[in-house]
Design a protein that fits this description.
It is found in: Membrane. The chain is mainly α. It has 17 helices and no strands. The protein has one domain: Hydantoin permease. The model has no long low-confidence stretch (mean pLDDT about 90).
Length: about 400
């Protein structure tokens, strides 16, 4: 493998992984571990298997076709790509408001400054990445560095928490109970919405496409899930170590209390770094990927792609600073977000068997079957969460 290709593949993997590891990722992992204890290991295991099945399917078809997801969707059914793009942009913008807020919170923990001020500083830093000439390379490097920082610091906290690793391993394969909702939540948080397309679209921009690239792209897609999963497992063990000691987490900020209880004030500052890194990389990933879903619809949008990404970040930051986090809207958009994976994966599976899209490429039958199972499961859960999300808007 060429060194340049290796760098691109690693960058795409980290972009996807750090897009997944956001404020919601930290909170979900902490809360579910507190509820399920060591049995949460089983939830992580099953979600990893589903994540790999979804992502390898999507990345392979994107690479083989040389097209972004919205263009593939329009080839399958005219107009479907516009609908998919609408869902992604709405979801990406809404969740980016939360990501900006998380970055502000991280800076508040680190420096004691107002979260809104921290959000503005973080937003400006994210904008700076897309101002530089080689924005793609800058984004790749940014995601890799902060990805390593998050994993290393959380690993330190895990060791200080002294988790019961033997029990965690046992319950991962023989759980006391199985929580289906937790599994679907983790899958949605790892490959739901815009997240799974972050790396795939990055490979398109870097020109790494075609049948010859399939083995490398497949490995990169698995690396991406692996990176996000390593962070999930380390955080799970850190939380398990704390709660196994009989310590109670602060319900207002469960992840912060884990770091603080495990490593004192140093741990609390480490949480600030991890929260900021998780949030700001998600800001970058959400903005880049959301805009990548509309840039092909017009030569003008393509020409001003970088300006659109910057505008996306500025709008997200402005909404958080002047309005805050519009919770009810986030509920609705979050429910819509749950429908993106089954729609997109379903479209990809149809496209995988259309010669006008993939040429003479033959998609493995087992991957198609695995993908169909994921589509059915995630569609059911997406509809369930949507039906529960809309009524909350009218209470």
């Amino acid at each position: 493998m060429k060194t340049s290709n290796r760098s691109i593949l690693l960058g795409a993997a980290f972009l996807m992984a750090t897009s997944a590891i956001g404020p919601g990722f930290l909170t979900q992992t902490t809360v579910f571990t507190e509820q399920l204890l060591a049995s949460f290991g089983f939830v992580i295991l099953i979600s990893i298997i589903i994540d790999i099945g979804a992502q390898t399917n999507i990345w392979r078809i994107i690479a083989v076709s040389g097209k972004r997801a919205q263009d593939i969707a329009n080839d399958v059914l005219p107009g479907l790509g516009y609908f998919l793009a609408l869902l992604v942009v709405m979801g990406g913008l809404a969740f980016n408001i939360g990501n900006v807020g998380g970055a502000g919170l991280g800076m508040n923990v680190l420096f004691g400054i107002d979260p809104k001020t921290g959000a503005i500083v973080s937003g400006l830093l994210a904008v700076g990445i897309f101002v530089v000439k080689e924005a793609g390379q800058a984004m790749d490097r940014f995601a890799q560095i902060l990805g390593f920082v998050m994993i290393a610091l959380t690993l330190y906290v895990m060791f200080t928490a002294q988790p019961p690793i033997g029990e965690a391993v046992t319950k991962t394969f023989i759980p006391d109970n199985i929580d289906i909702f937790a599994i679907v939540t983790l899958v949605g948080g790892t490959v739901g919405g815009y997240i799974t397309f972050a790396g795939g679209h990055r490979l398109i921009d870097a020109g790494l496409t075609g049948r010859a690239a399939v083995p490398e792209v497949t490995r990169s897609s698995i690396y991406a899930i692996g990176i996000a999963s390593i962070m999930r497992i380390i955080l799970f063990l850190a939380v398990l170590g704390v709660v196994s000691q009989g310590l109670s987490l602060n319900p207002d900020n469960p992840p912060a209390s884990v770091f603080q209880l495990a490593a004192g004030n140093v741990g609390y500052k480490i949480f600030g770094v991890v929260m900021w890194a998780a949030a700001v990389t998600s800001v970058v990933g959400a903005a880049y990927t959301s805009v990548s879903f509309i840039r092909t619809f017009s030569p003008v949008l393509e020409k001003y792609n970088r300006f659109l990404v910057i505008s996306f970040i500025v709008i997200s930051t402005s909404v958080f600073v002047f309005i805050g986090q519009p919770v009810l809207i986030l509920v609705l958009v979050g429910s819509l977000n749950g429908l993106i994976l089954p729609i997109a994966l379903g479209v990809m599976l149809i496209a995988a068997h259309k010669a006008k899209i993939v040429g003479d490429y033959k998609h493995p039958l087992w991957m198609t079957i695995f993908g169909i199972i994921i589509v059915i499961a995630m569609a059911w859960m997406g509809i369930y969460t949507l039906s529960n999300g809309i009524p909350q808007l009218f209470k």
